[in-house]
Every structure is written in C-alpha cells, then in structure tokens.
Amino acid sequence: MKPSRLPMLVTWSVILFFYVPIVILVANSFNSSRFGGSWESASLKWYIRLMNEPSIWHALTNTLIIAGVATLASMVLGTSAAFALHRFAGTRLQKVHYSVIYTPLVLPEILMGLSMLLFFVQLKVQLGLATIAIAHVTFCLSYVAMTVLARLQDFDFAIIEAAQDLGAGWWTTLWRVLIPMLAPGILAGGLLAFTLSIDDFVISFFVAGPGSTTLPIKIYSMIKYGAPPLINALSTILLVITFSCVIASQYMSNRDRRTA
Amino acid sequence: MKAETRRHASEWLVTLPSFVWLLLLFLVPTVLVFAITFKPPTPYGGIGEGWTLNTLRTLGNPNYPAIIWRTVWLSVAATAICILLATPMGYYMARVSPARRRLVLLLVILPFWTSFLVRIFAWKVLLHPEGLLKNTLVFLGLVGAETSLLYNAWSVLLVMVYTELPFAILPIYAAAEKFDFRLIEAAKDLGASSFCAFRSVFLPGIRVGLLTAFLMVFIPSLGSYVIPDIVGGPTSEMIGNKIAQRTFVDRNLPHAAGLSAFLTVAVLIPMIAITTLRGKESPRDTLREEGI
C-alpha cells in the first residue's frame, strides 16, 4: 500500500509558513522604502541609522547585565534543585518542590509579571534593573532545574559513594566529581536561561522601572510607536545571531554524539 | 537512625535554596494577587490600606463577558489548529530518515529560539496595509483595498498559531518517536484502512504527547497579551490586554489583581485536569516533550 503523502505535505507547508515572514522581514531591512510594499533600492541606510541610536546600545547593556546575573544565579539554584529532586525523589518535600518548580514553566508570563510587580510594590522596592534580574532568576531557575534533572537520569550515584569511600570529603566530591560530571547539563541549562532572559519581554515590562529599559522593551516601544525599517534591521541582526548560535550548538552536539 | 537524620538534613540543605526562592518570589506573590483584589487603589497608583469589595463589584463590568469569551475561543481555536497541524508533522518526523529528521527538527526549533517580538513584528510587516501580502491580494482581486488584514481577531489567531506551533510539534514528535509503527502495519494486516489505523492506533499511542501539546499551547494562549496588543485591535482584546491596561494605563493595581486572580483560577483548572489525565508519566520526560 502506498503511504499517504499528506503528513509530508503538511510538514513542508508548515515549515514554509514558519520562514516566509522571517525572509520577508530580512529582505525588507535592506529596502530603502518605508513599509516594504514596493522595492525601492537596496540599501544599508537602516543599519547605519541603527548604529547611531544610543538608546539601543543602552538597552543592550541592560539586557546583558540582567542576563548575566540571572544566568549565574539560576545555574546555582537550578542545579541544587535538580540534585535534590533526583537524589531524594519520592519524599513529600520533593513532590511539593517539584510542583513549585514545574508550575512557573506553564503559567502565562503575564501572571508572573503582575504578581511580582504587586510583590515589589507592596514591599516598596524601587523598580529597576535589580527587580528585573530577580524576576528573571525566578523563571530561569525552573528551566535550569529541568535541564539538569534530565541529565541526572544517566548519572550513576555509585561514583559519589566510590569517591567518598576513597576518602573524599563532600566539598571535594562536589567540586571534583559531581560538578565536572554534570557540567554539560548545567551549561545547557545556563544557555537556555541566557536566551530566555535576553528574549523576555512580558515579565520585564511589568517589573521595569525608569532607566531600566531592556532590548525587548525597546523593541516593543519601537514596534508600537516607532520606525518599522529600524526594527527590520535590528531584527535581522538578532536573527543572524540566534540562527548561527543554534546551528553551531546543533553541529557541536551532533559531533559529540558521533565521537561518543 | 543517625544516618536517617543526616540524610534528612542534607535533603533540606539542597532543597532550601530553590524552595525558599520560589516560595518568596513565586508562591507569595501569587497569593498576594488574590489578597490585593480586596484592597482599595490609591489615587497615585498604589495599594491602599483596609479592605474593600469594590474591585470585585467592578469586575462585573459588562464588557468583560465578551472579552472572556473571546479569550477562550481564540485559545481553543489556536490549540485545535496547532494540534491538527502538529500531529501529521510528528508522524512524518518519526518516520523519515534520521538525517531528514534532524533537518526538520532544526527548522522547527530555530523559530522557537528566535526573538518572540521579532516574530510577531514580522507578521505585522507582512499584513501591513502597505505590506507585500496586502498588495498581492489586492492585485489578484481577492480582497478590496479597504479590507484590513491587521488589527482583528483573525490576525491575532494567525500569529498565535505561528508562535505556539513549535510547542505542539515538539511533544507530539517526542511521543511519535517512541511509538511502535509495527502496530499500524498489524492493524492494516487485520483489515483496517490507513485512516482507521491512524485514528484508532496511532492517536491513542501518542496520547501523552497530545495532552502535553494541549497544555503547552492552551494555557499560555489564555494569557496572551503581546500578540493581541501588536497585531490586534480594540475588537480583539483578550484578558491579558485588560490586565496590562489596568496596570499601565489606569494604574489601578487592585483591579489588575482581580483580573489576574480570575485568570489564575481559569488556568489552574485545565492544568490540574491534564496533569491528572496524563497520569504518572515520568517527570523527567516532560522537559524533552517540551522540546528543551
């Protein structure tokens, strides 16, 4: 019997649907016309104008500071959480622990954004870079914990016992055995946290204060009130960066699999 | 006995950092949303002293049922379309050669890693009155020059499907990959048609993937805010837009809290239902099914 071609057709149509808007956006960034309804001439003028926009550089700096802090803190908290969830799986404490880690992953961002805003307002905390960073640690923690937890599945705890039998204290065991063995998982979680932090708009928007504009908040206000061609150019730069990072990491993990 | 206490102590030691953090910054704020619903707003956009039922009364605003209904139907429609498209994709991806599968997987994951705002903006450009799609459709005589492709419920639905589709494809693919396709052969040998085998063997086989896909698309959809804000108009507002409006425009935090409390309850019901339905599937697979 001939297999149906429908699944194949659906798959490639969806992929076309995924990429058409992106390709048009990129093409438009080189178009000197304002709305891209018609092609005027190829130009780099939007890119040049973008480079001379100090507020974008300021927003980028803020974004990177927040992402750096959120990544490091969530790597520490997320890894210990994953370790607890795996090592003591099944206890009542871990069941509760698991649900407070899992729920933020599914809950709509707007709920987390507003609830943290109310929390900070109630405590009279000044909104700014610090509140955004705290909010980012909170949602990144869950993603790191889940990523590390997935890696822990293949982890053999006999190795820890072996290290301790051979006289290693818990500090040595932690730094010389556990962390090096979990490094790929922790790094993968950190990469995910970094990407999510850089991209987050909703939660940041709710807990941002004066002067703490991040890149997504800047892009949002440009989309709402500003110049479309400039966003085309900025988007293209972001697309090139993410696409090359993802393809590079995919290539590396494929290579790892082959050598393993 | 002593080993038992030591094990207990070390469990608390590694659990406490993340547990306390989430307790303070996730659980307490969530409970606070419910509490602040009963607080009066101050004229300066803060939260006043004392308790009041005023917010609860203003939530009876006659505009709200329409907005709630729209939020629900847009989310249901987006979820249905995503699952309808993702199921054949999962089937295809599980059956092709590994090289082809890696390519499709990469092409599906790439947009997922791309900036959310950029993807929404790409549609705004495409659907813009002076944009390429509109010009083409007018040229072909398919739409009139006055028809707007943007700022209505359809553009919101389209972009919701666009951004959420990867969240449906990945869990369904993960389930399809584990599915034993010999079962379909067996069903066909026993006289089932292709469609019948697909429906009564394949679909039940990927049940967990379908449920996870439902959860991953439906719940975030209910809380959509940026998509209706950018490609929608006044006639396509969702609950999320109202929450943001009360927060940033009217600066009435108790009112925003009331709407959020309502949304939280609305979101928890399907979430608990699905988690129960999904049963005691290994929690460690969840992440992979979420495609991360």
Q: If classified by CATH, what would the architecture of the domain at 55-226 in chain A be? A: Orthogonal Bundle
Biggest beta sheet summary of chain A: none
Looking at the structure, the CATH topology of chain B is: MetI-like fold
Largest interface: A-B, 94 and 91 residues
Mean pLDDT of chain A: 86
> What pattern of helices and strands is seen along the backbone of chain B?
HHHHHHHHHHHHHH
Q: Give the SSE string of chain A.
A: HHHHHHHHHHH
**Runs of chain B with pLDDT <50, length 5+?**
282-292
Question: How far apart are the first and last residues' alpha carbons of chain A, in Å?
Answer: 39 Å
Which stretches of chain A are poorly predicted, pLDDT < 50 over at least 5 residues? none
For CATH, the homologous superfamily of chain B is named as MetI-like
Number of helices of chain A: 11
For the sheet with most strands of chain B, the description reads: none
Distance between the termini of chain B: 41 Å
What would the principal axes of the Cα set say about the shape of chain B?
A: globular
Describe the structure in your own words.
The complex is a heterodimer of chains A (260) and B (292). Chain A has 260 residues and is an all-alpha fold. Chain A has a domain at 55-226: MetI-like fold. Helices cover 79% and strands 0% of the residues of chain A. The radius of gyration of chain A is 23 Å and the shape is globular. Chain B has 292 residues and is mainly α. Chain B has a single domain (64-289), classed as Orthogonal Bundle (MetI-like fold), CATH 1.10.3720.10. Chain B has helices at residues 2-36, 54-58, 64-95, 98-113, 116-127, 132-139, 153-178, 182-189, 194-205, 207-222, 226-231, 239-249, 253-278, 283-289. The two termini of chain B are 41 Å apart. The model of chain B is unreliable at 282-292 (pLDDT under 50). Chains A and B meet through helix 1, helix 3, helix 4, helix 5 and helix 6 of A and helix 1, helix 3, helix 4, helix 5 and helix 6 of B.
